[in-house]
């Protein structure tokens, strides 16, 4: 399972790759020293990633990636805990009518 992030910095792209059969070490998203240890669990409509990291700012992130039955929507629910503080978000991505590779490249070029 892999997650690719598009950032506002044109030359800075992040891809996290997870092994679905064992725990995976990935770089911390906040770019601080140390690793994040993540476990991926598959379920009927997607996957769940549970990631944990140590100091500084020990915490965990649980993300649920769910694809709609028709494959046109991807919902990502995230729950972040750092110390006693918790935040949650839900993002829904809808596939455009023109989801060809060329259309997606044009959209990405507009952002950069």
Characterise this structure.
This protein is mostly beta strands and 112 residues long. The protein is 10% helix and 54% strand. It contains 1 helix and 8 strands; from the N terminus they run ββββββββα. The longest helix has 11 residues, at 101-111. The protein is globular and about 45 Å long.
User: Gyration radius, to the nearest Å?
Assistant: 16 Å
Uncertain ranges: none
Determine the structural class based on helices, strands and strand pairing. mainly beta
How many DSSP E strands? 8
The residue-averaged pLDDT reads 88
- Give the distance, in angstroms, between the N- and C-terminal Cα atoms: 26 Å
Secondary-structure element sequence? EEEEEEEEH
The shape, in one word, is: globular
Estimated helix fraction? under 10%
Helix run count? 1
Biggest sheet details:
6 strands, antiparallel
**Largest beta sheet: strand ordering:** 3-4-5-6-7-8
- β-strand percent reads over 45%
Architecture blueprint of SSEs:
Elements: E1 2-6, E2 13-17, E3 24-27, E4 35-43, E5 46-53, E6 59-67, E7 73-82, E8 85-94, H1 101-111
Antiparallel strand pairs: 1-2, 3-4, 4-5, 5-6, 6-7, 7-8
Q: TL;DR of this structure?
A:
Helix content is 10%, strand content 54%. The longest helix has 11 residues. The radius of gyration is 16 Å and the shape is globular.
Properties at a glance:
112 residues; mainly beta; 6-stranded antiparallel beta sheet; two-stranded antiparallel sheet; 1 helix; 8 strands
């Amino acid at each position: 399972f892999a997650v690719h992030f598009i950032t506002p910095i044109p030359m800075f792209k992040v891809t996290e790759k997870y092994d679905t059969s064992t725990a995976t070490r990935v770089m911390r998203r906040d770019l601080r020293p140390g690793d994040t240890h993540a476990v991926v669990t598959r379920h009927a409509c997607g996957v769940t990633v549970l990631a944990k990291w140590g100091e500084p700012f020990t915490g965990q992130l649980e993300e649920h990636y769910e694809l709609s039955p028709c494959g046109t929507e991807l919902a990502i629910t995230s729950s972040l805990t750092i110390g006693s503080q918790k935040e949650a978000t839900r993002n829904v991505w809808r596939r455009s009518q023109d989801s060809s590779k060329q259309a997606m490249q044009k959209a990405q070029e507009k952002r950069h």
